[in-house]
Amino acid sequence: MLSVLVWLPIAGVLVIGLWPHPQAETKHARPVALVVASAVLIWTIFLAVQFNPDQATMQFGEFVPWIEAIGFNYH
């Protein structure tokens, strides 16, 4: 769940940076940035509401084996 807070802004940067026409980039950069920032804000509020302060363990962590042969994991 926390990965969305990291990867969503990166995806927004890629959309803006890889826009096909340079003239259109400046026209569409602000709306795309606003949508991405709003989505991150909404997701942050959603996570804050789901947070349980009584639980002492890590709550929204993810652990995904990535390259098992050399022990790399996404955590």
Characterization of the model:
Helices cover 60% and strands 9% of the residues. The chain is mainly alpha-helical and 75 residues long. A hairpin with a 4-residue loop joins strand 1 and strand 2. The longest helix is centred in the middle third of the chain and has 29 residues.
Blueprint (SSEs and pairs):
Blueprint: H1 2-17, H2 22-50, E1 64-67, E2 72-74
Antiparallel strand pairs: 1-2
Largest sheet: 2 strands, antiparallel
The amount of beta strand, in percent, is 5-15%
Beta strand count: 2
Using the CA coordinates, give the radius of gyration: 17 Å
Spell the H/E element sequence. HHEE
Please state the overall shape, judged from the principal axes of the Cα atoms. Answer: flat
Number of helices: 2
Walk across the major sheet and give the strand order: 1-2
Distance between the termini: 11 Å
Mean pLDDT: 87
Question: Can you give the helix content as a percent range?
Answer: 55-70%
Give the helix/strand class. mainly alpha
Quaternary state reads: single chain
Poorly predicted regions: none
Total domain count: 1
List keywords for this structure.
75 residues, mainly alpha
